[in-house]
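Changelog-adjacent note: as of this version, every example in the card shows the full chain rather than a window. The one below runs 155 residues end to end.
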Amino acid sequence: MDKELVFLVVLDDSSEIMNALRYAAQRSAINKGRVALLYTFETLEFSHWKAVEDIAEVESRKEAESKIKEFENFVLKFTTKNPKKYIMKGNRIECIINFLNANKFITNFVLAASAKESGSDHLISAFTGKQRSKISVPMTIIPPNLSEEEIDKLS
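Full-length structure tokens:
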């Protein structure tokens, strides 16, 4: 049996995230694969107030779950397979490296570039620069100037 193709999209609040999601969802539908959604949030340090830190983490997780649900609904417009959903706490780049190294089922890492500097461009710079040797999965970068129709044709 062939290995299921799984397209990882790291979620953020950028407008270009929808391009990455669209591409990943279309590719997974065509290839009978699946989308994996990873949401990361920073660790909040309230060393003197552990209870405050715990409350902040619970709130961050609830927000992450809510946002993942929105993105999941978008993915389901293109494919019938529910995406795999993951939430990690910590430095975003370290989370991605750890996630990819621990989850060898991921077959493609999808990022979308921004027309202006944004969070995903930071990831693109990291994984095409200093961090490139720390991951061993192909990466697809969706250019910022593609229309939905052009993304669909790529899929």
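Structural remarks: Residues 50-75 form the longest helix (26 residues).
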